[in-house]
Amino acid sequence: MSNHVSSHFCHLILDNIPVAVVTIDADFNITSFNNPAEDLTGYSASEAIGKSCSEILHSKRCNSESPLKKIKEVGVPTSGIEIELINRYDEHLPVRLSAASIEDDDGAVIGFLEIIEDISREKSLEREKNNFQNMLAHDMKSPLVAILGLTKRIREHHEDMSADKLDTYCKTIKNSGEQLESLVLEFLEFSRQVTDKVKLNLEEVDLPELLDQLILRCQPQASEKGSTDMVNTVNNKQLSIA
After folding, report:
1. pTM higher than 0.90, yes or no?
2. How far apart are CA 53 and CA 27, in angstroms?
3. pLDDT tens, 174-189?
4. Going by DSSP bridges, is the β-strand pair 109-118/20-25 parallel, antiparallel, or unpaired?
5. CA dihedral (104, 107, 108, 109) positive or negative
6. At a CB cut-off of 8 Å and minimum separation 6, what does 63 contact?
7. Are 154 and 169 a contacting pair, CB within 8 Å?
8. Rg of the chain (C-alpha set)
9. Is the dihedral of CA 34, 40, 41, 44 positive or negative?
């Protein structure tokens, strides 16, 4: 295979792999720049080649914590460094960087190879996962507080409660327990990650009954904080909806 064909074949491979690949000389100037690197940075290969890597592959670590300078000093390749790359449009992109030195036959460093992976989607999914977990924890707290609050009220005042009031509290505790169970099952299903598609189970709800349950759940907290007027206000709104 001739040198021309071999070079063309290498460029073909580099331009079609799904990560940015950049080579840099010993003076930290860019010597090659594949298509994914162009897409990631917003610079064309003709614009990038010959420029300082800190100018094209700009990040907050370019100066004091430059991975390439550390490799040149220590001689140890780096792998999986997560940084924010600032592209030509001043967009901050989360990337994962791996870098190694290129040496001649005598072991002298003549350049560097950087592999840069865009992890924007990965970070987005991570944020969605954290948001889901935070939302779930918040949603689980409400029925749990209702169960504990109403159980305490029954324990302390059951002798003075009417049968209807006691039955209403017990039903609310049961409904809160079922809601809590449903949230736990939902979390377990999410954790299994069987599929990346969200399945919605739509069903009709009795809005006045739902409001009534929510009011009963909030009564223990409202009473403790002296906010019974707020509960009465919500109760009045519920009656107007019904």
Report:
1. no
2. 9
3. 988 888 888 888 777 7
4. antiparallel
5. positive
6. 54
7. yes
8. 31
9. positive
